[in-house]
Amino acid sequence: MLFKTSRSLMKKIRLQVICAGYSLVSTGLLLLSLILSGCTDIWNNPYPAADSGKNILYNVFAERPKHLDPVQSYSSNEIQLTSQIYQPPLQYHFLKRPLTLIPQTASRMPTVSYFDSNDTRLPANSADTRIAYSVYEISIRPGIFYQPHPAFARDEKDNLRYHELTVQDIQPIHKISDFEHTGTRELVADDYIYQIKRLAHPGLHSPIFGLMADYITGLREYANTLRDQARTRPGNSFLDLRDFPLTGVERVDDYTYRIRIKGKYPQFIYWLTMAFFAPIPWEADHFFSQPGMAEKNFSLDWYPVGTGPYMLAENNPNRIMVLERNPNFQGEYYPDEGMPEDIQKGLLRDAGKPLPFIDKIVYSRERESIPYWNKFLQGYYDASIIGSDSFDQAVQITGQGEATITDEMEAQGIRLGTAVAPSTYYMGFNMLDPVVGGRTEAEKAAARKLRQAISIAVNYEEYLSIFANERGIAAQGPIPPGIEGYHEGKEGMNPIVYEWHNGEIRRKSIKQAQALLAEAGYPDGISRKTGKPLVLYYDVTARSADDRSILDWMRMQFRKLNIQLVVRSTDYNRFQDKIRKGNAQIFEWGWNADYPDPENFLFLLYGPQRKVGNSGENAANYDNAEYNHLFEQMKDMEHGPQRVRIIDRMITILREDAPWLWGYHPKEFALYHAWYQNVKPNRMAYNTLKYYRIDPALRDQKRNEWNKPVLWPIGAGTALLVIILLPAWVAYRRKQQQQSITEQAT
Amino acid sequence: MLNYIIRRILYALPILIGVNLITFALFFVVNTPDDMARMHLGTKHVTEEAIWKWKEEHGYNKPLLYNEAAHGFEKFTDTIFFEKSVSMFAFDFGRADDGRDIAYEIQSRMWPSLAIALPVFLLGLLTYITFALVMIFFRATYVDFWGVILCVMLMSISSLFYIIGGQFLISKLWHLVPISGYGNGLDIGRFLLLPVIIGVVSSAGANTRWYRTLFLEEINKEYVRTARAKGLAESVVLFRHVLKNAMIPILTGTVVVIPLLFLGGLITESFFGIPGLGSYTIDAIQSQDFSVVRAMVFLGSLLYIAGLVLTDISYTLADPRVRLE
């Protein structure tokens, strides 16, 4: 009996052992088949099958947006969302180049009037010195309505339904769509005024408050008033800005308002294209300030309320952001004029059609470039930027140096779009440094020669070729292409660094650089005064191991002049601290334009903008009296030949003084699938999604072609496991039989 | 046992205070409140006034550890350290520097982390122990020999390679599952399949060898010889006796990590686009968000301590001779 029990137990155990090896495999295969059986023909589609064939644009975001409140959002990853939701009064023309401002919600371009200190109106051509302030009058189109939102919902008695909520009322609400009722209302001038006041709100941190407080009359004082008011109230309670007038803004009527600017500031009009000057309805502000809202992350920073073509339907910045068509949006049409080449490119096929074309935009979070790139190739993203890893796969450079798409990409119908960004990356010299800046006049003259010599030696064409796959153009000055003051060809050449040779720009020889170095007092890199080799210090932010080659290359460039370059790598905080205190000698930095005006680049070298002492944006601490004077003249001038002449003179001064190695202007390469249409790169405007068009049928067809599941690996894997485990099973059986024989024998 | 648990919880308090202090010191050695303000306000048009306002708004306008200007006990309480730390012990994590509620984020992000970590943990445990026992069962045969070689090969490969290789093969070439992403409801299954398989396979080498070593040590003990002498089959010896007796070291290595499963994996979540707590921590470090970093370190320490207590308790369940006093 005991023997029988032991045998049956052994059988059970054997069964366990047999099953153990296969259990995970079978579980995995079962799980796989169960999961995949629920899918459609394509198994690797990351989107719900129900979305196939829909008019949806699939996009990517890498970094989670911090702020969606238009008074705070400033980073490109934030603006790409807020620009579709909020409507400032102006925008850039989608097709025209150079970039041209046109009305968005404004009924016409703003009118500007000038006044002297006695409030007397001045003619438009008055001298800048007489202008005490400027008044921008902006009229908006009637009939623009906000997106549906509970903040506007009204009850039967026409009272705002959700404006007296308690914490208990909010308790069961988890997202804004959980509110049963929504409403809307017409956009009025007061909403724009309300937002301008919010720039000074004590609880918000508008990045442009400091700048605007210097221009908008009374804004700084207004911030003090609001701060005093906020201190007398319990935390987070609603501060109704309508109760506090701001002298710098004035309501003329329901659809017209004025902004009063100190002095003359022609660039102010560009700020009117940015979400900082978009409308905010007081109802939304009040709605989100109710008790219990903040605890559930219900705020304007999380749930924008706008009049734009899209509204934020899902906000999960950890994973996905979804924009859906605003049903109340109307009155905007695709442009019917553009550049001559736009007709050829088919960019005017939709002229005059109502916007937007796409119903929904899905932004998925991709932190890593590899999945992003692969999903683009599978047709799950409609466009992709090209990283260094995938550059060779996507782009080939012709003998003439022209970038074209590879055959592999072309076969997939992918097309390439390139655009030079309105940005500049430069290497700056700290002009307060005795070696590269100089203190006495003689030292300054010698340091200038030294900087010029280095400018020739550091070959940015080579840098772009080796490290950037030619994605950029070597800069001739601070102004990038497409901005007033930039010239092509010989006219735009920097004669300090380059020479004109056979109809082409050519970098000067290293001998010329060595001659300049000798004139600077360092023949062959040895100080004439001390007899010691010249050692310079290059401050950079902490680099990854991958960037070591760039730093080695940079050392090599200086070595051409026998200059020893010591790289001082530090974290970004310490680096900024060094720049602020003027402790760096040579450093690298960059600037992305806020607006397409040369002032936005040239002010980076304006003396009063010095970092040291003035906390400005002039990191090189460059200060040239003539340049400063010309800048002051230029910044308030209207566009035109006279202004360009002044800019040319300023650029000449800069090239001669060489406070920066002009570096390069990055060129962006992007790929678009065949079904993605109406794309024209524009780095200044982000509200362009309304112009884009998708062909979902073509996309579905291609996805099906490209993503057919390959099933043989599952069968092969199973067979391989069987092959591996079968001998083990046989061995196990043999072992058990031997044991059994032994037992029987005993 | 209750006394023991209470004592361990009380011991945890000074540890948590110490961890908090070290985190605070390390963070503020690298980042000053001014740096944090600049990071959040951006690099353009940032004025001293804006920095001051941001610090005041976020409570970073006070001295770090000691307030000379204050009186009495406030010299210690009216400081950044005190104000930012005390609330955490009441599990009030406060708000991130971008204004969002940290507790809300943790609650919503721990589930995706758990959705990966738990299957990897359970499937992994089952796989590694099974394979280790199979290797022991066939010890000194070619199964054992090639098994060990396979384990060494598996543990020689970087986990990043498994991820990239897995994505390339299974998702890109064979189109069997999505490369990355996350879904809702049951749809998450097809997004989790690949990271779970990779999670299990990437640790298979080291863990299987570890369990094999444990079992090898047990297999030569006297009780095993006795069991065999009694005529028990090898499979019974292994699965019933050896496994049970090796439970203490197994529990030591496994139970302690159970609470930490909530915290997620940094690289896996990043590559597979899983919106878990691992990527939340990385984001916070990159954006110098001290509030989140401190909350996550605190939570990590707390869960680790909880894991150690659970391990001790699990000993009593695995081995009746163990008493917690």
Automatic annotation (TrEMBL), chain A:
Keywords: Membrane, Signal, Transmembrane, Transmembrane helix, Transport. The chain crosses the membrane at residues 710-732. One of its GO terms (cellular component) is cell envelope. GO terms for biological process: peptide transport. Residues 186-610 form the Solute-binding protein family domain. It comes from the Bacteria. SUPFAM superfamilies: Periplasmic binding protein-like II. It is found in: Cell envelope. InterPro entries: SBP_5, SBP_5_dom. It holds the Pfam family SBP_bac_5. GO terms for molecular function: peptide transmembrane transporter activity. PANTHER family: PERIPLASMIC BINDING COMPONENT OF ABC TRANSPORTER, PERIPLASMIC OLIGOPEPTIDE-BINDING PROTEIN-RELATED. Belongs to the bacterial solute-binding protein 5 family. This is Bacterial extracellular solute-binding protein, family 5. It comes from Nitrosomonas europaea (strain ATCC 19718 / CIP 103999 / KCTC 2705 / NBRC 14298).
From TrEMBL, chain B:
Keywords: Cell membrane, Membrane, Transmembrane, Transmembrane helix, Transport. The gene is appB. The chain crosses the membrane at residues 9-30, 114-138, 145-168, 188-206, 248-272, 292-318. It is found in: Cell membrane. PROSITE patterns: ABC_TM1. This is AppB oligopeptide ABC transporter. It is a multi-pass membrane protein. One of its GO terms (cellular component) is plasma membrane. The keyword Membrane applies. Its main location: membrane. Residues 110-314 form the ABC transmembrane type-1 domain. Gene3D superfamilies: MetI-like. The keyword DNA-binding does not apply. Pfam families: BPD_transp_1, BPD_transp_1_N. It comes from the Bacteria. It comes from Nitrosomonas europaea (strain ATCC 19718 / CIP 103999 / KCTC 2705 / NBRC 14298). Belongs to the binding-protein-dependent transport system permease family. GO terms for biological process: transmembrane transport. InterPro entries: BPD_transp_1_N (IPR045621), MetI-like (IPR000515), MetI-like_sf (IPR035906).
